[in-house]
């Protein structure tokens, strides 16, 4: 089942996609796609969609999960991306946090931060936690996943790599976390390590990869992170990007106002973003 949130910023309503591709409002059955609701998605999936209000096409889509508690990112999780970044393959997952204030809808646009000259793109598989996970094994880790989504883990490389401190400030600018359009339940994604992914800038395909080449797969990541912190329903894990980011080109290529970014992952939908200056 595919779930989404639609409506104006701050006024989003929960919905599902019916078998004909229509958007059906779930407002009468749940307040939002967050917290405890994520533990009962199967109940929502069993609702007779024909009795749900049909939403007019063309509505704005919000992030497909609300009230995210932790936005956890994994760095250098594709060997070929580590190589293009000039960094070694990590011997264990590299974890950093992205501010939840960066989260926005999948098509809301990319705002180039004031003074930025190195805003970069990264298509990534997102994992949304559906029930608490603490010290879980790899064998049981996927039982704690509510679903999967597309994330563009945008980065300002000068802020991230050329200034003092950790990566967080280069990853957390406003509009640097488009999530969605859909939260897709695991029954539609039986193997999260077999998904093709891509990203285009102004129509040119610059990233073309597969989750099969992750250094650490989804089950490993959920299990690993749960050893250090309890994962809660609504937490989001962004699992890393394949090669083809702007930083890896010779010379490097970065986003500017007027650029168009389109990205997607098989079975999870796609995002379309227009870049503009802050």
Largest beta sheet: strand ordering:
4-3-2-1-14
- Strand count: 19
SS strand fraction: 25-35%
Structural class: mainly beta
Estimated radius of gyration: 18 Å
- The CA-CA distance between the termini, in Å, is 36 Å
Helix content: 10-25%
Mean pLDDT: 95
The helix/strand order is EEEHEEHEEEEEHEEHHEEEEHEEE
What is the general shape?
globular
Would you write up a description of this structure?
By secondary structure, the protein is mostly beta strands. Helices cover 12% and strands 30% of the residues. The chain is built from six helices and 19 strands. The strands form five sheets. A five-stranded antiparallel sheet has the order 4-3-2-1-14, with no helix packed on it. A hairpin with a 2-residue loop joins strand 15 and strand 16. The protein is globular. 46% of the residues are buried. The mean pLDDT is 95.
Summary keywords:
278 residues, mainly beta, 5-stranded antiparallel sheet, 5-stranded mixed sheet, 6 helices, 19 strands
Give the SSE layout:
Blueprint: E1 2-6, E2 13-17, E3 23-25, H1 41-45, E4 54-55, E5 71-75, H2 79-84, E6 94-97, E7 103-104, E8 110-112, E9 119-120, E10 123-129, H3 138-141, E11 145-152, E12 155-156, H4 157-162, H5 168-171, E13 177-178, E14 183-184, E15 196-201, E16 204-210, H6 218-225, E17 236-238, E18 260-265, E19 269-277
Parallel strand pairs: 5-17, 7-13, 8-19
Antiparallel strand pairs: 1-2, 1-14, 2-3, 3-4, 5-6, 9-12, 10-11, 10-17, 15-16, 15-18, 18-19
